[in-house]
Structure formats: structure tokens, C-alpha cells
Design a protein that fits this description.
Blueprint (H helix, E strand, L loop, with lengths): L8 H5 L6 H18 L10 E6 L3 H18 L3 E5 H7 L1 H4 L6 E7 L2 E7 L5 E3 L2
Parallel strand pairs: 1-2
Antiparallel strand pairs: 3-4, 4-5
Length: 126
């Protein structure tokens, strides 16, 4: 199992928020380095998932381009994932969290209250 998180928070904090062009450049610099670190785990993959929408297109494009390249190189299927759902389901990468909970999701221009059901499906509340 390989899980690594790279934060750009400090890079953007001086601007008071995310700068799309800076985010895209930082993504393009960080992703190849991260892939080199996890290269030995590629043999365990059965697919490549990538968040594709909604979001800042220049930033998403960095990840989409890298995911397409990786999926092609490894001959694996590419699975598009809703960016907002990606935020939610990433909660389960680091900790064991039970389902059946309320979620306040605030991401860029998107704010919503959701209910995460026992079957991992989402219901929009507000």
C-alpha cells in the first residue's frame, strides 16, 4: 500500500487562496516525483482513477494528463472520478471511518451538505 500527500498550502497562502496557474505548475512538478517514489507499487494496480470535474481546469488537466499517460504505459483502464467525490472518499485513505455520516463539503466555489449512506452513496441535503 502506498499513500502520499503533497500539499501546496504554503505556496498559495501568500495569495489568500488558490492561484490556478501556480497550482497547475506545482502539480506538473510534483506528480512525476511522486510517481518515481511509488513506482514499485505499480504492479499492484488494476486501474488508474483521476478526478476530472468540477474544478480548476488548468489544475485538473495536470492530473488528467499524468493519469492518461500512466494508464496507457501500464495498459490499465482509466476511471474518471468526480472531483468533489474524490475529496469525500479520500477521507478513507488514512483512517478507518464508518459510513453513515453528515458531510459539509467546501471546495473552491462548491459548498454543500451531504449525507454519506451506509452503502457509500451520497445524498445532497443542501
Amino acid at each position: 500500500k502506498f499513500h502520499k500527500k503533497i500539499s501546496q498550502e504554503l505556496d498559495h497562502s501568500i495569495y489568500g487562496g488558490v492561484v490556478p496557474e501556480l497550482a497547475a505548475r506545482l502539480h506538473s512538478e510534483a506528480l512525476p516525483k511522486m510517481l518515481k517514489q511509488c513506482k514499485e507499487h505499480f504492479k499492484n494496480l488494476c486501474a488508474i482513477a483521476v478526478t476530472n470535474e468540477p474544478g480548476l481546469s488548468v489544475s485538473l488537466l495536470s492530473g488528467i494528463s499524468m493519469a492518461k499517460t500512466l494508464a496507457s504505459a501500464l495498459n490499465l483502464p482509466l476511471i474518471p472520478i468526480n472531483h468533489l467525490k474524490g475529496h469525500i472518499y479520500s477521507l478513507f485513505l488514512e483512517e478507518k471511518i464508518s459510513l453513515d455520516m453528515g458531510i459539509l463539503l467546501v471546495s473552491g466555489g462548491h459548498t454543500m451538505v451531504l449525507y454519506l449512506k451506509d452503502d457509500a452513496s451520497l445524498e445532497l441535503l443542501a
